[in-house]
């Protein structure tokens, strides 16, 4: 019997990526997909890659079919999962929120950054931050998983071996991050029109971005030292992919950092440490659930530079959500996720 | 037991696409990959999406391991398969040539277009043109398959229902085709540098392109009438995808053309006929083995326009090659090929 | 004294292209720019390339400053110029409409395609179709110029030498055209988001596009024979540029077509005929007012193929509008327009 | 009388950009252009935007016509200008080297980074670093100008107001830089093929890039304090544009940094300081000689972030070279350079 999956808010890029991955998953199938705006329309009208592939039709979010599912994924603006997760949990339906509603454990911090009161503090306590390489065991037992943000995924995987081994001065961490435009969603918006994005590059959210408190919280969970973090996102003229270039100061520059990273991830299928002198490219992980990481100590600058790439829709969203689902249902964590990056 | 696959000339985009598809194929595995220039190098040094995925190393083309395979794919410049296919066939190793050596049945025509003598006329007679939707039965029994060109695949699938039902004037067929740049290969070349291609579009090969005689030959195989064909390729500022816009004159404009196409392909998984008024986009089939086709009778012009899209590396090359392999080995034709187009 | 220019509806890509060209024009300056939605905002807030360059601020369309101009350009949706042109003409202010309101001389045909009644038939009679290479003298004397559509400009320049010399069968003209996405405008729209356009290509408007009657009308103005035209637009994953590939049958295939084109345009600065065997690329005319044309007789198909490229915002819109302005004010036609295409 | 310009090594992207700018320059004309490989070919065969625009033909580098010039630009690989500059200087022909031969004042440092002995130490002493906003007066009197690298131009303009006013801790400067692919040149190269670059992003040269010693040298020229610099270049999937995001620690966070930048550049036409909260986009300066800079103090991180954009072929190469030429010949520094960035 396949796991029955519900997708709430399935009109965007995360929605189609969930559909695409689940289509290839041997143990899961989409049982219901909802969109208030698209109710009654076939998904192939909305996603033309689905012509002749699926006869699914968008339902209203309160459709009963959603409550027949074993798990629901929220791919919705913040606030929606917060207000609706309990409806499913109380029916023993597991919940993964691909939005931000349960990522920040401190409700006040959440409210400051998301400009909305958090009404579900008890769920906030229960929710598990769904980064399998950091919290695998807790995820296995979770009913409610907060799927991490895309930038936090790239940054935290790059920092974890350093933090857990106390190798860096945590007071001066700089994460210069770049994202493909699919991270901005599929809503009509002048700022993300083709002609506004192509052949251009820019920073944004420099004075403050919502992934900042999320990254900081998770760094702090891995260290006792005070954390000073600077995080700058930039927008790339491409669809998919995030690259994080992270600058830190080593406490002891004699450590074999590459070996430390290789050890930290030797049993992790989805995190690949690159050989010395090889730097990651976002295309290497496009359409996949992989993360590639490279470390470079720069002698003339006396800095350690860590570079990390993921597909923001894959390991940064839908792929990681399916990885979490696999864990929550006791499946092989890699099921349905072993596609290689699409090159070219 | 998995089918042992050999890839000869595996350094280009067709090579990595074969690797990617076979990685997900339940019944096949790459046993040997060759490249004279890359001998001894790991494939992950050449294709960075393979880091930590495969330990394959490039062999020389005469390595014995190649002769342990059940099937070899030639992904080589023309001339190579012609001169080497027999070595494998005589050892009962099946051969699929993704190049052009066995596509043109007339050796003289081949020589005229490829500027090289054809030395293997008997193999030319034996070879089956590997378009499963046209020649499925012959492919099942073939030892040697000539995998079709990318443009011919897109054009022929679009014309087949019309030709087989004698619905058009075959003396005036115009195929205006556009291809992504991956069709030009991975060899260092000023003309296909990023800065030469991006934000630009151009026709090329207007006075004559090698896919012209191939398309014409296959059209002629489906009709008794004299064939007049104009074929113009263009280069798109994108990696993957071919679109063919084909202009024909209907003999009888009262025919229900859409129904004719739907009937022709109702049992074909990989060819999808779009609803009336919906036109195909190359992205819908990106990374997949699907073809999407749309037909539009234009009243004020009295023309039938047929539009067809494929991924030139998928259905136009490696995908179709695997589809042929599946048929040649009696497997389910769709095995390993049901990935949906990557969107976005 | 510089010509005082007004731009009505200056919030889109045509608006910024007018601003950019006029900034370099020795004899003109923008005196007023309007946008109902952007009233009071600085143009540098809307077009970030203008920071520190201009202190212009958007006015309301009824601002008096507009009536101090010598000429106004309408860069507005259809209907606006139709209803407002007279206000300027009666004050002896010349008008160039970059929209479609005065392009179609038959009011009924216009209404059929634009779904709106034409209320200004007398202005329609007066308006001159602003294609300088076809109607230079009439433009010099015009008060009201209908600036041609982008596709019509590319197609008509490619056909004019053939039509004026009666060299082709006009009953079977096929124009397969491809446009960059800037032609779709700057309004927020899901269909033209970066992630919807990049790495994809598609036909659109196949059953009928508003530039069809415009092209047909102007072809008919150059020939006595009945005209059969098929016009198919496609959308390119790039910002600027139109390519038209046109298929026609020669009446007499012995004519030296290249010489015919060279003669036709030998005194035209902005139309360049390419040497035999050289095909045009859209990038060659990017950001410029040039058109490049190539002709190729295809022997094995017995067709003449004409290929033409322009920048849809340059010669296809703002550049041609300035060329018209130059003519209307008795300036050197090339003034401010001799920038070379931006490569790369 | 126009300045007679010679371009040595005019086959690449810097060459065509020089041609394009000089074409619009009222006081200069290209008198000779050389390329050993392209001798005898018309420039329009090499740069298709030049069809019908110029009849220039490539000469050999020792052609006499070169010695009739008033100034020569070297757009050559390193080593060429070093060995040939003296030939021109002794004939009173001014020299601007767009390569790296005279940028590093210490010959040993140059040799370490460029893997070649420096044979012209006296010229090295004479050469002026051609950054007009930093060394205008020296450039006016120079015979030999070392045109700055593209990354150094973006970084140094962003740091100058801070360094000259001693506002930052110079021991911890991080410059995370991103460049369009035209910076990699026009030589055939697998790594910069369209399909390798599009839809991807990557760091490169992380352990050491030749622009590092150049940036460090010029920073040190503006401060007494010890300089600790980390510089990481990345490659963008676009043609033109560099963005530098620079992280520094303020000595006194109460300073009005924006005012400091505005004052520093209030008389500089080509450097625009953006309003608070507006961040630069590379497209804003595409095809232009402008630089746009933004400063943002990030409170929760206690860092100052400075962001700077230029066109790597404009202000980062050919534009700045022409600006230097204008200064060297006593012309208005802005002559021929006031084009606005091309948007879209």
TrEMBL record, chains A, B, C, D:
Keywords: Amino-acid biosynthesis, Arginine biosynthesis, Cytoplasm, NADP, Oxidoreductase. One of its GO terms (cellular component) is cytoplasm. It is found in: Cytoplasm. Residues 4-142 form the Semialdehyde dehydrogenase NAD-binding domain. GO terms for biological process: L-arginine biosynthetic process. Gene3D superfamilies: Dihydrodipicolinate Reductase, domain 2 (3.30.360.10), NAD(P)-binding Rossmann-like Domain (3.40.50.720). InterPro entries: AGPR, AGPR_AS, AGPR_dimerisation_dom, AGPR_type-1, NAD(P)-bd_dom_sf, Semialdehyde_DH_NAD-bd. The active site is at residue 150. It catalyses: N-acetyl-L-glutamate 5-semialdehyde + phosphate + NADP(+) = N-acetyl-L-glutamyl 5-phosphate + NADPH + H(+). The keyword Lipoprotein does not apply. Pathway: Amino-acid biosynthesis; L-arginine biosynthesis; N(2)-acetyl-L-ornithine from L-glutamate: step 3/4. It is an enzyme of class 1 (oxidoreductase). Its EC number is 1.2.1.38. GO terms for molecular function: N-acetyl-gamma-glutamyl-phosphate reductase activity; NAD binding; NADP+ binding. It holds the Pfam family Semialdhyde_dh. Belongs to the NAGSA dehydrogenase family. Type 1 subfamily. Catalyzes the NADPH-dependent reduction of N-acetyl-5-glutamyl phosphate to yield N-acetyl-L-glutamate 5-semialdehyde. HAMAP family: ArgC_type1. This is N-acetyl-gamma-glutamyl-phosphate reductase.
């Amino acid at each position: 019997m396949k796991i029955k999956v519900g997708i709430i808010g399935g009109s965007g890029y995360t929605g189609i990526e969930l559909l695409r991955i689940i289509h290839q998953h041997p143990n899961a199938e989409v049982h219901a997909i909802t969109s208030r705006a698209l109710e009654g329309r076939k998904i192939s009208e909305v996603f033309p890659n689905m012509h002749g592939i699926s006869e699914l039709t968008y339902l209203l979010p309160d459709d009963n079919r959603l409550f027949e599912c074993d798990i629901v994924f929220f791919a919705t603006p913040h606030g929606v999962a917060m207000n609706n997760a309990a409806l499913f949990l109380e029916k023993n339906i597991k919940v993964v929120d691909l939005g931000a509603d349960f990522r920040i454990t401190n409700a006040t911090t959440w409210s400051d950054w998301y400009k909305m009161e958090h009404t579900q503090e008890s769920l906030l306590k229960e929710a598990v931050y769904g980064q399998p390489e950091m919290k695998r065991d807790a995820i296995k037992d979770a009913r409610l998983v907060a799927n991490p943000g895309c930038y936090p995924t790239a940054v935290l995987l790059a920092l974890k071996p350093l933090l857990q081994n106390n190798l860096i001065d945590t007071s001066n961490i700089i994460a210069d991050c770049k994202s493909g435009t699919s991270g901005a969603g599929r809503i009509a918006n002048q700022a993300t029109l083709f002609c506004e994005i192509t052949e251009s590059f820019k920073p944004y959210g420099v004075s403050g971005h919502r992934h900042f408190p999320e990254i900081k919280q998770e760094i702090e969970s891995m260290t006792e030292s005070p954390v000073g973090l600077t995080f700058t996102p930039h927008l790339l003229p491409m669809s998919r992919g995030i690259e994080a270039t992270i600058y830190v100061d080593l406490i002891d520059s004699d450590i074999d950092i590459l070996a430390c990273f290789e050890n930290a991830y030797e049993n992790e299928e989805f995190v690949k440490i690159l050989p010395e002198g090889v730097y990651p490219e976002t295309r290497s992980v496009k359409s996949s659930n992989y993360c590639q990481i490279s470390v470079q100590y720069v002698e003339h600058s006396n800095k350690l530079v860590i570079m990390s790439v993921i597909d923001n829709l894959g390991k940064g969203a839908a792929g990681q959500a399916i990885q979490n689902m696999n864990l929550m249902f006791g499946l092989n964590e890699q099921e349905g996720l072993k596609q290689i990056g699409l090159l070219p």
